[in-house]
Amino acid sequence: MENNIIDPKTLKVQSELPRIEFENQNQLEKTVDAMVERFTGLVVTKDTYKPSKEVRAEINKVIKIIDRQRIDKVNEVKKPIDDFNDRTKALTAKLSAVSDNLGKQLNDYNDKRRAGKHEIQFAKFKQIIDEYGLQLDQVPYNPKWDNLSFAFPTFVKEAKEVCEKALQAQKQLKEIRQAVIARGDELSIGVQPFLEQVGKKDLADILRDMSNYKKELINVVTEKEERKQELDKNNHVLANGKVVNSNGEIVDEKVTVRLIIKDLTQYQLNQLKSYLKDNGLHGTFRLLNNEVTNVQ
Fold first, then answer.
1. Cβ atoms of residues 245 and 234 within 8 Å
2. Phi and psi dihedrals of 261, rounded to 5?
3. How close are the terminal C-alpha atoms of the chain, in Å?
4. For an engineered disulfide with 25, which of 21, 69, 224, 293 has Cβ 3.0 to 4.6 Å away?
5. Each residue of 139-177: pLDDT tens digit?
6. How far is the C-alpha of 199 from the C-alpha of 6, rounded, in Å?
7. Do the beta carbons of residue 139 and residue 163 sit within 8 Å?
8. Residue 267: which residues within 8 A CB-CB, separation 6 or more?
9. Are the CB atoms for 252 and 227 separated by under 8 Å?
10. CB-CB contact of 246 with 233 (8 Å)
11. Which of 216, 218, 155, 212 is nearest to 183 (CA)?
């Protein structure tokens, strides 16, 4: 492809910058200095009011004459500069239109190249994940790998490093879950709520929560047992199910209820049994598969 490029060495601007000044510049400066020296110390009083006013008017007249000459001459000198600016901008505008069009085409072409590279690398990425026994949702694909300047060997190296970190993280989570389950067995409490905290909280915090939960359960059971003993001491149940106090007043009544609860998990079922047992409630659970479980 032939390159009709302009050589910067040949691109020289011809200019003849004018020297701008008044024909009698030196005399004008002396005259202004003399006026300044003469009138700087002028003090306005009753006697000098009128001449001071005339002096100021004369000074302002001189200012306007000088400024008018300055403005006219500057505008005259600026015209070729403005013309040069306009002609130069017209040239660069033509070139910019071509450059912008090429830039858009290059971007579109690079997008296609990146898409093609992504397709190839993502297939390799899935292969690497499979080799490590992982799933796509367990390992993030880094968008920077699709950059055209990013080397393929480096991509493979980093993808493997990400997979190794994911495996290590899984191993740590498994160990944490095992520790939580072991602690739950030791405390004889359900572990599902605490397993849900794995990955969100530190193991030490989870174990502390489990210990606190066990203490709370013990306190609740103790309080319930004390209340039950107090009720048994002061009340007794009649044959008709009425509960009366020591004065023979009816304070409660025993009833039998039937609950149908659907879609319970085994953990929820065990929690319900534990709750009923802790509250001195006895009954029979009949599951949908006709299995009967008693609340002991």
1. yes
2. -120, 125
3. 92
4. 21
5. 999 999 999 999 999 999 999 999 999 999 999 999 999
6. 63
7. yes
8. 190, 192
9. no
10. no
11. 212
Which residue from 162, 156, 202 is spatially nearest to 179, judged by alpha carbons?
202
Q: How far apart are CA 219 and CA 221, in angstroms?
A: 6
Distance, in Å, from the CA atom of 293 to the CA atom of 296, rounded to the nearest integer, reads 9
Q: Which pLDDT tens digit goes with each residue over 64-113?
A: 999 999 999 889 888 888 999 999 999 999 999 999 999 999 999 999 99
In this prediction the pTM is: 0.51
Task: Find all residues with CB under 8 Å of 148, minimum gap 6, and list them.
Answer: 110, 113, 114, 117
Cα–Cα dist 194/210, whole Å: 7
Using alpha carbons, select from 140, 265, 262 the residue that is nearest to residue 196. Answer: 265
